[in-house]
Amino acid sequence: MSVRTDSLKLGLFLRATGHHLAAWRAPDAVADAGIRIEHYQALARQAEAAGFDTLFLADSVSIRGIDSPTFDRVIAPHLTFEPLTLLASLAGVTTRIGLVATASTSYSEPFNLARQFASLDQISGGRVGWNLVTSSDPGAAANFGGAAQADHAQRYSRAREFHAVVDKLWDSWESDALVLDKAGGIFIDRTKRHDAAHQGEHFSVRGPLNVLRSPQGKPVLVQAGASEDGRDLAAATAEAIFAAHQSLADAQAFYQDVKSRAQRLGRDPDHLKILPGVTIYTGATREEAEAKFQALQALVLPEVGLELLSGLLGGADLTGLPLDGPLPNELPATNASKSRQALIRKLADEGLSLRELYLRLAGARGHWVLVGSASEVVDQLQSWFEGRGADGFNILPPTYPQGLDDFVTYILPELRRRGLRPAEPYQHGTTLRDHLGLPHPRHPAQRPPEALAG
Description:
Distance between the termini: 29 Å
CATH architecture: Alpha-Beta Barrel
CATH superfamily: Luciferase-like domain
Strand content: 5-15%
Order of helices and strands: EHEHHEHEHHEEEEEHEHEHHHHEHEHHH
Helix content: 25-40%
Largest sheet: 8 strands, parallel, barrel
Structural class: alpha/beta
Shape: globular
Number of domains: 1
Strand order of the largest sheet: 1-2-3-4-9-10-11-13
CATH topology: TIM Barrel
Number of helices: 16
Radius of gyration: 22 Å
CATH class: Alpha Beta
């Protein structure tokens, strides 16, 4: 296996008070951080000063578990701002870090979404990415006039066409369309305009988009699906993937599979960055890190942990089951994330009880959890990076601000000492594509004929 010469990429996943289930109950937590814009702005500035490549915001178009008896302790602490609105604010207080937001293809229209992301990309100077998702929560349909959620295959059929339309709309104008010829009275070169002219199964969109081409060509396309449909869509379209794995072997298998699919489609696999999520508990010593982890675990109430597990399983009814007993072999079919359900089943097959399962998931909802000193943690990150299990990581601090403070204080210097992160960030340019080592796409009309033929 060849030695890697690229740098390890770093994203920061913003989530109110943090990613641990009980983060809002930590003694130093600002419990209502999710509705404090100054909280997010401070984190964005800190992440940029530390040299993170991206900030990432998740989203949902419904409140999951709204009728749950533990709603006030599980979901409510994470009620927060709509992500595109929040990114606009963060773009105004940063100048270099990438800004990635989630938006669903299930309950959006391509023209509106393309316009919003193109606008944010212009506002930020080419630092925006779109995390393309489909909505699996049954409650979402009720917010958009629907009686039932579309099934998995239907959601991905719509998502593929949705992306195709957005991509056409982002190509509405060539990069040199703006003329600004005051003497001649010509503002824009109309020959550089291209209508989407899309007629498909799900959408009919004429175009063109009423926002000019992005400074980085197009916003970066991000995805997180790990099902077969998700992998196929990512291999064909994604430029970064946020993944969830528990072992290096699983990470390597996913990495090889998705990049091979992309290569078979004629894509350069290096233009698809795979960034597994990881939550890190660290300190000056392993003992200090372990104490931080156990302090948060002790704050997880059993009914809250069981609700988390039920939610990740798509709303499976676990009431009345013994907490120290196993997860049932047979669970009702749901329309939830197939990849996350498979991950939980794999953990259950290791012999974990329901209590052990929800405590395992409380730290990062199924993402990788590392507890240890800086050298121990970076040993693991380095093995995944050099072992082709990851091109970098999406960091999920267990708490804010302490979890991010600990990463910057302990982990980041060790990454730099080993040459895994540059001492001076943002060396390669000003856009998100520059930070991730991705090419700036040329407009189809400006590509050489041989490129178009390929």
